[in-house]
């Protein structure tokens, strides 16, 4: 499948903003429900302080912000901050969807702009529009974004420039007229979500292709059941196998993150090189899941990209 393949925009009788917001909500719910997803919360696995139900509450809470994003061309930073505030005000499990919000907001903005103008679109058009939107962010977006971290309780890497630990950072942003996109450029080498902004949401688009192809039995035909749960889990492992999860890197170190990616790659190699299908390796996935959960190693950045991929796939008309 090509990212230039055209999809028809669904018009279901409700305002376009409502359709886009529901796709965003469903994407978050489908990702957290998929199991077994090594190291992450799902319908069968909770953490001590954060549960599956916290993620569901977070996903449902963001509906009005995603509606607003679908009708906006500017103000990405403020929209991200609003979504984070809604997320934490509806549940007590802490940071659930911070990275996903950073991806979903500009993609929802792009969907609103793109679908308002035409009835057919390509994934390439959608992500290019989102990239143009984030490139046009300004200093006010950066300042609003900085206000999210305390609210969400997000752990960040220490940096020399515009450090979140420095109370003078927002003044420095204003003095140097730094946009939110420029902040993402600074962070792109050590943060997977920031890298998506700068690279034009490439991994999000790739993930959407995997999901669309998986549900049409075009990704490894016959080896993965045409089942939303298995397709999402496969997509998660595929993205994880090809990228260092920077959420793990921040929480532990790069070596740990790369080891986890290598584990995911080894699992998938069994499908690629042997006469087995996805169901045959479920036990191995569950074993990896148990090991990561015990060590509290959770590939959160990968989950965020998968959410964005599901969102794009739903916008493209995927049903299951």
UniProtKB/TrEMBL annotation:
InterPro entries: CitG
Coiled-coil intervals: none
Source domain of life: Archaea
Matching Pfam families: CitG
Name under which the protein is recorded: Triphosphoribosyl-dephospho-CoA synthase
A GO term for molecular function: ATP binding
Region forming the signal peptide: none
Organism: Methanolobus zinderi
């Amino acid at each position: 499948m090509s990212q230039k393949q055209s999809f028809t925009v669904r018009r279901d009788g409700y305002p376009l903003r409502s359709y886009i917001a529901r796709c965003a909500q469903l994407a978050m719910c489908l990702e957290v429900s998929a199991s077994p997803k090594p190291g992450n919360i799902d319908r069968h696995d909770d953490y001590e302080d954060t549960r599956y139900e916290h993620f569901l509450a977070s996903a449902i809470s963001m509906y009005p912000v995603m509606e607003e994003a679908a009708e906006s061309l500017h103000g990405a930073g403020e929209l991200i901050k609003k979504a984070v505030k809604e997320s934490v005000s509806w549940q007590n499990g802490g940071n659930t969807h911070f990275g996903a919000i950073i991806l979903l907001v500009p993609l929802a903005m792009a969907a609103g702009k793109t679908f308002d103008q035409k009835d057919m679109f390509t994934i390439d058009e959608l992500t290019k529009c989102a990239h143009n939107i984030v490139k046009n962010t300004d200093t006010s977006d950066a300042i609003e974004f900085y206000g999210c971290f305390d609210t969400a309780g997000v752990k960040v890497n220490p940096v020399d420039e515009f450090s979140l630990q420095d109370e003078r950072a927002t003044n420095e942003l204003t003095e140097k007229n730094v946009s939110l996109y420029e902040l993402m450029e600074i962070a792109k080498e050590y943060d997977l979500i920031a890298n998506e902004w700068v690279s034009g949401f490439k991994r999000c688009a790739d993930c959407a292709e995997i999901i669309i192809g998986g549900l049409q039995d075009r990704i490894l035909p016959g080896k993965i059941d045409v089942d939303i749960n298995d397709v999402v889990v496969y997509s998660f492992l595929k993205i994880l196998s090809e990228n260092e999860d920077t959420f793990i890197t921040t929480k532990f170190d790069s070596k740990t993150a790369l080891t986890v990616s290598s584990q995911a790659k080894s699992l998938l190699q069994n499908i690629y090189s042997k006469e087995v299908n996805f169901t045959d390796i479920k036990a191995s996935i569950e074993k990896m899941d148990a090991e990561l959960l015990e060590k509290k190693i959770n590939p959160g950045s990968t989950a965020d990209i998968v959410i964005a991929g599901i969102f794009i796939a739903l916008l493209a008309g995927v049903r299951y």
